[in-house]
């Protein structure tokens, strides 16, 4: 397998996969070493970027995935029979924001912060696979701790949690230390 | 006549309070509690008239506001030496101010996330494909990508598929959980990868189905077998923990 065909294979793999493909997986399938795989993927990313294509190769949720470029969105919308998902409701986004930045966190803690019941928005977020149970808190009643999923990263186009938009204060206070969080995402890292 | 109106303008009492404070251009650390309470109750009166959902949560906040108001009316015990240090936190409004500030940050964070979501919605990716069931190297997690819900759903399917015309009561021999567990381990050992459905074999009665399901759960708990799905909504498979360890 010389380098030219290897590149074609890597491109084909990423294209055909419906999930962001990890470097490790690509290397396993192609039997290339990790270093070469990284190099090939980087070349592909550049290639798509520099040729003003309607498709981009981007890193998301710890893997690589093809996506259209946002400039094409208005035309793609025209092609659709039904409008795309309308996104999350304001209440759901608020609950999600707390979980994202404060995870792992219990329902009661979220409710204390929002001042409202979050039962339904949590159910909604779990159903959308944006959050999941990441464990139990070692306190009376052993309440469920929630954290974000890999799908959350995909939905928001993030490679990992360090890419989250910065919230003043929360970041500065150094209260966010995602390394200590038993995230679902980390399992396959 | 009852009207049911759902207003999503205020996402809760904190949201409303923050709005009242900001629209009155009040310093969050120095809230004129009497004024804000009055405005708050005014709004509350309106929503009660409208018969809105979730008024209870707003009432809790109203009570908190009135409690703070009452506390502020009480003479403060002056403790000269420490008062300088504790003044801020001694203020009955302190806790509320902290909550409001934190809530403000939440709103900010939500806004940032929403923006990000809208931005990402512009990028289209291939969502389904033949390769949805990508081979994933298995970590030692007994419930790989499955949740208990997935298992329960699978059990539901089994239950439904077994619904047959009821027979006359025939005395059945009762199989113990332990027996059932041994049987399943044997089956999985034989088949290496056993369809969840198949674990139930020819069982007829509900009680036996449940025993069998419990046996599966117990085996997972003990780490003897692993349950996993190759794809979303796919069939749940059972396999021996040892098999996975060997494969790695």
Question: What layout of secondary structure does this protein have?
Answer:
The complex is a heterodimer of chains A (189) and B (248).
Chain A lengths: L2 H14 L6 H8 L3 H17 L4 E6 L2 E6 L4 H7 L10 H13 L2 E2 H8 L4 H9 L3 E6 L7 E5 L1 H6 L34
Antiparallel strand pairs in A: 1-2, 3-5, 4-5
Helix pairs in contact in A: 1-3, 2-3, 5-7
Chain B lengths: L12 H11 L9 H17 L5 H19 L6 H11 L3 H27 L27 H14 L15 H15 L1 E3 L10 H16 L3 E5 L6 E5 H7 L1
Antiparallel strand pairs in B: 1-3, 2-3
Helix pairs in contact in B: 1-5, 2-3, 7-8
Report on this model:
The complex is a heterodimer of chains A (189) and B (248). Helices cover 43% and strands 13% of the residues of chain A. In chain A, helix 1 packs across helix 3, helix 2 packs across helix 3 and helix 5 packs across helix 7. The longest helix of chain A is centred in the N-terminal third of the chain and has 17 residues. In chain A, 34% of the residues are buried. In chain B, 55% of the residues lie in helices and 5% in strands. In chain B, 20% of the residues are buried. A 3-stranded antiparallel sheet of chain B has the order 1-3-2. About 2% of the residues of chain B have low confidence. With 248 residues, chain B is mainly alpha-helical. At the A-B interface, strand 2 and helix 5 of A face helix 1, helix 3 and helix 5 of B.
């Amino acid at each position: 397998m010389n380098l030219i065909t290897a590149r074609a294979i890597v491109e084909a793999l990423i294209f055909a996969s419906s999930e962001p493909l990890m470097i490790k997986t690509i290397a396993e399938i192609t039997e290339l070493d990790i270093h070469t795989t990284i190099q090939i993927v980087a070349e592909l990313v550049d290639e798509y970027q520099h040729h003003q294509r309607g498709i981009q190769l981007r890193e998301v949720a710890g893997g690589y995935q093809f996506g259209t470029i946002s400039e094409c969105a208005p035309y793609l919308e025209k092609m659709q029979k039904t409008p795309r998902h309308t996104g999350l409701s304001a209440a759901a986004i608020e609950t999600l924001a707390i979980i994202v930045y404060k995870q792992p966190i219990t329902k009661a803690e979220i409710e204390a912060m929002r001042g409202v019941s979050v039962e339904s928005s949590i159910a909604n977020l779990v159903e959308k696979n944006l959050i999941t149970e990441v464990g139990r808190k070692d306190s009376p009643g052993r309440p469920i701790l929630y954290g974000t999923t890999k799908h959350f990263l995909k939905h928001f186009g993030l490679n990992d949690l360090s890419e989250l938009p910065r919230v003043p204060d929360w970041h500065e206070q150094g209260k966010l230390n995602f390394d200590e969080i038993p995230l679902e995402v980390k399992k396959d890292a | 006549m009852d009207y049911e109106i759902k207003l999503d303008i205020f996402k809760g009492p904190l949201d409303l309070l923050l709005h009242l404070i900001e629209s009155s251009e009040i310093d969050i650390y120095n809230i004129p509690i009497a004024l804000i309470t009055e405005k708050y109750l005014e709004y509350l009166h309106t929503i009660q008239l409208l018969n809105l959902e979730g008024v209870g949560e707003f009432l809790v906040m109203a009570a908190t506001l009135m409690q703070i108001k009452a506390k502020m009316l009480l003479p403060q015990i002056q403790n000269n030496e420490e008062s300088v240090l504790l003044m801020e936190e001694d203020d009955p409004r302190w806790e509320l101010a902290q909550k409001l500030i934190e809530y403000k940050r939440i709103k900010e964070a939500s806004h940032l996330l929403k923006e990000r979501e809208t931005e990402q919605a512009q990028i289209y990716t291939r969502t389904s494909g033949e390769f949805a069931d990508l081979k994933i190297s298995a970590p030692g997690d007994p419930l790989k990508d499955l949740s208990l819900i997935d298992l329960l759903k699978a059990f539901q399917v089994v239950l439904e598929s077994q619904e047959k015309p009821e027979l006359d009561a025939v005395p059945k021999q009762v199989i113990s959980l332990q027996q059932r567990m041994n049987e399943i381990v044997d089956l999985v050992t034989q088949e290496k990868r056993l369809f969840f459905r198949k674990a139930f074999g020819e069982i007829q009665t509900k009680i036996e189905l449940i025993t069998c399901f419990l046996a599966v759960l117990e085996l997972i708990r003990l780490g003897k077998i692993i349950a996993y799905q190759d794809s979303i909504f796919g069939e749940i498979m059972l396999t021996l923990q040892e098999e996975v360890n060997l494969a790695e």
